[in-house]
Prior knowledge:
The chain has one helix at residues 102-106, and strands spanning 4-7, 11-13, 18-24, 33-39, 46-51, 58-60, 68-73, 78-83, 92-99, 117-118, 122-127.
Amino acid sequence: QVQLVESGGALVQAGGSLRLSCAASGRTFSSYSMGWFRQAPGKEREFVAAISSSGYRTYYADSVKGRFTISRDNAKNTVYLQMNSLKPEDTAHYYCAAAQTFGTVVGGRIDPENGGSWGQGTQVTVSS
C-alpha cells in the first residue's frame, strides 16, 4: 500500500482555479492507478477523475470534463488535479485514492484489503 497526503484545498471564488496535490509514500507509486473523489455535505462520495499508472490513460466524471485535469509525476510520487472554472457545486472534500488497476479506481472500489489506499482529503470551497 501507499500512504497518501492531499494538499492545495482552499476557499476560491466561482470561476477561479485550484491545483490539488496528492503526495504518496512508497517506492511502488508508479505501479498504482490513481484517482480523485469528492464528497459534499449530505451527499455520497463521488468519482471525479482517474489516471493510469503510466499516466497515458485518464477518465473524468461528466460534471468536471473539460474543466478538471488529472496528471501525475512518478518521479515525485505525486498526482495532481488542476481545477479550472470552478463552480459552487464543486464545493466538497476532495480525496486522493490509489488502486492496483485503472478500472478499480474508476469504479470507486478502493479497498485497503486489496492494496488500495485513501488519503484524508482536502477541503475545496467555491463561493458564488
